[in-house]
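PROTOCOL LOG
Step 1. Enter all chains and additional molecules of the complex.
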Amino acid sequence: DAGVIQSPRHEVTEMGQEVTLRCKPISGHNSLFWYRQTMMRGLELLIYFNNNVPIDDSGMPEDRFSAKMPNASFSTLKIQPSEPRDSAVYFCASSFLGGDYEQYFGPGTRLTVT
Amino acid sequence: QQQVKQSPQSLIVQKGGISIINCAYENTAFDYFPWYQQFPGKGPALLIAIRPDVSEKKEGRFTISFNKSAKQFSLHIMDSQPGDSATYFCAASPGYSSASKIIFGSGTRLSIRP
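Step 2. Run joint prediction.
Step 3. Record the structure below.
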């Protein structure tokens, strides 16, 4: 079975550019999470969706960040405009709402903003 | 009240020794306490989890000890091996009413010396 799929795996962009990160959750899962990981701040929950509906976006740093989940098999995290402090590894995870709470993480996207 | 505090930040243990990582929480509504393991370049993966109705759970060399009255829980790795070198995150979930959100600790970087 395919796990959580994220693309791209690596992204290097210049400050001010738009960045779009993509995630395909595990088939059948109905909760999706976006995390950001840095050395300084650890693993931070940015936003999560249940049944494609955003439930909690309190972790989104600022208005430059937005996330969408147009259907059960696809989500995007967009940063516009990007800044050097956005450099981090971004993880997507999925789980089955009402199950055992286990979250399955993707391999991450390493974002570098120069 | 939503925080999960984890210590130590880093830990070095000799091969064959016992690794111990501690966590504490405040929110008594938490009812699920997982530990995630993360290898470099990979996303975190569930290692072992416990619910507050038991005081201990063991899976192979990994044991969670849970003290509900003290609101503390810990991970013990017996006979630690170099392959256990990774970052470990404790976590807590606020319960079914809050769906599938998990609060992660700050992480412990474990190194097992051969």
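Step 4. Note key features.
Chain A touches chain B through 23 residues (CB under 8 Å).
Chain A has a mean pLDDT of 94.
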